[in-house]
Sequence to fold (557 residues):
Amino acid sequence: MVIRFLTILFFIQTYVLAQGVNPLQIPDTLIGPFFNLSIDESTRQFFPGPLTQTKAFNGNSFLGPTLIIRRGWNVEVTVNNQLADTTTIHWHGLHVSAHTDGGPHSPILPQQQWNPDFTCLDKASTYWYHPHFHGKTAKHTLEGAAGIIIVRDVEESNLNLPRKYGVDDFPVIVQSLEFGPDNQIKTSGLQDSIVLVNGILKPFLQVPAQKVRLRLLNASNARNFNIGLPGNAGFFLIGTDGGLLGRPLPVTRVKLAPGERAEVVVDFTGQQGSSISLKSYGSEIPVGTQGGPLPLMPAGTPPMDSPLNGVDFEVLELRVGAMTSNPSGNLPDSLAAQTRIPESLATDERNLRFTPVVPGSYGGPFLLNDSTFKMERIDLRIPLNAVEIWNIHNQTPVAHPFHLHGFSFYILDRYGALVGPEEQGRRDMVLVYPNEQIRIISRFSNFADSTTPFMYHCHLLTHEDEGMMGQFVVMPLVSSQNQINQSDFSVFPNPFSESIDIQNSDYPEGFSVFNNMGKLVFSSDSKTESIETKIWPSGIYWMISSKGKRQKLIKFQ
Ligand code: C2O
Ligand code: CU
Ligand code: CU
Fold:
């Protein structure tokens, strides 16, 4: 009798807290280097009653496949626009040229195709893709046109980490959405009350009783998530936007601003049969940061309240099942080599201010350096290979997630204080809190193009669409006075075949490798690199540092 009573209590405890009803969908994978994407109008039955109009890729009714790319691959994509609307597809976080980046200057008209190709130069991490047609980014993205990109590389592959997709390595695309009474997705408001994971309402995921990697992406319009486990249970943050951290970081919370990604490892060893709520602890988000409690609004502000603001809610129920036959072992002590750019390399400094159009306004629109976005106006001209510090000053009472296209950056400091280890990695997003001043540092290498601009913007999609965005071009170097024919790299072996190890003695300058036709095939900010070269055609390659030092490399079959 007593035992039965206890059993019942146990179930009440675990199942009342967890709310999962629907199995989480895991997006299919497409493995590169060649991708065919078709962006389509679709519908999905989210609620009883009318179907919801959605946008999705490749026959899905919401979101798109996970694209898997290896660093060094020559990626070729065909995007078919089957929408009734012009759109673009942007590779968020990837270091690619301005004309392949998929920003607002690469429109794909209805029934037209776009064929970007690029070499994958990025470190292993979780990136994503979404539309970026100016004024329609929120609508297209929030209606479902988004997907994950997983980049793999040698460094990550050599680590003992969970990486079996859909087995112990899961994409977790978190979105909070506002639905109208007609069941349609509203992309203008901030009264989001529905949380979806991978497009699923009230989801649960069966995970094995071992170490599991979750690739978190916040693909919401404006909501910040503060991800954690009940009882402050610990887990590990292993990667942020642009790559793995130096070492696994024990945490109890991971902040996820719109556009941001984080890779975490949760250990479910010995927990078979239990049910655990992955939650967002909104009650801990500060006032003024979307997702936290509402600030006191000036009279006349349109309503911004959402039942999710300032409260804790479940994002995903994790049901622990059986262990797989060969689970990944202990987490490695160190993960990826960190290539933070030293401040001493900075060649220039710029100031960027966020201000509201109406002083004191919480609701936007907001400006960057007093301007609103204009397609025809280039805001910044940056010389190729410049290392720049951007001082970003948020002079508004709300937090804005700042995003830079094409080039990763590092956060130098917040209010003059060094950031914690969770923010020291390679990034393309940074949340700037109300009235805060932060500094970031970035190197603008490889992709000069004086006519096609890259974007920088607030990743709150409605702010971006309202014009909280600017554009920069990377200017080609006028002379080649730096092209000293001098070897400053130690390269082994050379000639090479399957792989090549490089010591960059010009470090912390970066280096790039070009083929004999001048096409970029590799780029790095690291001191040492081990490059997979199996797929490189044989021939002559040139390694060039950002200072212009060069060395000839020979590849044989
Ligand atoms: Cu995720 Cu400019 O975009
Ligand atoms: Cu982007
Ligand atoms: Cu903003």
Observations:
- The first helix runs from residue 2 to 17.
- Residues 484-555 form a domain with the Immunoglobulin-like fold (CATH 2.60.40.3080).
